Structures are given as C-alpha cells and as structure tokens.
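Interim report, section 4.2 (structural modelling).
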Amino acid sequence: MAPPDHTDSGSPAYLAGLLLRGRDVLVAGAGAVAERRLERLLEVGANVRVVAPDATAWVAGRAEEGALVWHRRPVAESDVDGAWYVIAATDSPEVNAAVAAAAEARHTFCVRCDDARHGSAWTPASYNVADMTVAVIGNRSPQRSKAVRDAIHRAMEEPR
Amino acid sequence: MAPPDHTDSGSPAYLAGLLLRGRDVLVAGAGAVAERRLERLLEVGANVRVVAPDATAWVAGRAEEGALVWHRRPVAESDVDGAWYVIAATDSPEVNAAVAAAAEARHTFCVRCDDARHGSAWTPASYNVADMTVAVIGNRSPQRSKAVRDAIHRAMEEPR
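Predicted structure of the assembly:
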C-alpha cells in the first residue's frame, strides 16, 4: 500500500476540539510566547499550571487573581504527570525538548513552541465569532495559516 | 473572580491540531459513524485500532488492506491503554460511556459520538484545501458548524 499523499488532503494535523474546562494543562514558560497561548486556555476554562522561574506582568497578574497557578521554579519532567495537554514555551530548546519527551512517553499531546515538528500538536490560527471558533492549520508556515484565517474572517464579514 | 463568559468568546472547545502520524488511536465501533471519523484519521497517518464485533464493508476492506487493525470483538476498557486519542462510536450508550470513563481516568481525550457533552473532545466540521485544513466548531449544533464551514468554503472559492 502506498503511503498516504498529504499534498491534496489538508494539513497532516488532525483538528480536534478539546474540552479543557476543569482539565489540567501544563504551560512550561511564562514569557510572551506562553502568554499568547494562555489567553485562549483561560477562556475555555482550563485548569492551567504555569511552571517558570520568571513571568511576564500579565501572567503574574493572572496568577495573583487566581485565574491560573504559577509555580515559580524551573519545570521538571514530573510536572507533565496529570496534564491533559502540555505547552512547552520556555526560552530553552533543551528544556522544551525534555518536556516534549516526557509528554511523548505519557502519550500526552504537547506543543513545542520553538520547534513545532518535534511536538505532538500544533496550535492553529483561529478566531472566535459569537459562540463559534474557526481554525486554520497548514503544512507550511504559521504565517500562511494566519493569512488564510484573516481572509476567511474578511469574507465572512463582508456585506452581501 | 467571575467565571469566564463564553457567550462571546467562541466555542468552549480548544482547537488543536493533533499530529497523529504513527500514533495510536482507538476507535470503538465500526459502523457508519466510526467510518466518517476513520477517513480523516487514516489520511493523517494515525495508527488506528478498531475494536468492534462487526464492521461495515469499508472498514473491513481497510483492515484487509492493512490500513488499520480491526480487533473483531467487543471493546474492553483496557483497549484505551496506550491510545493517544479515542473515538467512542459504538451503538451502545453504555459501552461508549465506559470507554469515555476509561479515557477520562487516563487523561486521554475521547470523542463520544452519541453524547458529545460527556466526552472530552469534539470533532469540528472541517474541510481541506491544498495543504491546509479549516475547521469550525461551535457551542450549539453540529449542523450550525457545518453550515458555517460550507459558507466559508463558498466564500473562499468565489471568484474575485
């Protein structure tokens, strides 16, 4: 049997809507990259654990409010235990690789923000309209997915 | 802190692109509902295990070709072990509930085809264009997500 040809069959990623409300999500790192992911995770009601020695003011503020839990220390492999979903967003490729490897061993999906191909999940470009979410994901650059998302958004909002 | 208000912030599902190539996926059931999910799972290269006493001709054919593995028996909770992602698509709500509970205990995402709210993941309405995938997911009916997907598709294909 020939291997499947993805060139005309969409992205190689399987788009799934994860019901994260009340479910444990680990975010390793608390910089600008982590921040971008945290916003939507909090919006869907995930129980977010952030593990990082330092954090942006926004992350620190959300922790202070009780919207997420911030463990102020370097991430350890055991932090992956219990997580449904993992975001590796530290500024160290080595640490991100170790987090992704720990997630892989547990069959837990992990986004590697520094090196998407070596994680087990990608974050699509998405936008929200009323109670719906539209997402675009591709095989090539995130910039291209974002451009398509924006084109769809414009097309959807054009007057008829 | 007030609970997050989802009415204007998209669906409560978090859209993720799962890289299932070579990763183990359990599909419980092998009827028409399972079939619809299997097509895309095979397209992205998942290692699919189907567990069901009976199967449609299409599923049986894919098993014969070696595109998936079909275990011809009722599903057991232990079948969830090792899976990255689970589709509960049998024709028995009790069996689907048991599969979903086993997945929940392992923190493994599970789509319940008979009762979406009691699973941990939803399948968005999606379509593929070239090497991209566009997905729509909503808070209400799958029919509405499909209608929006189709509208986007038409808008994207309209001549300028």
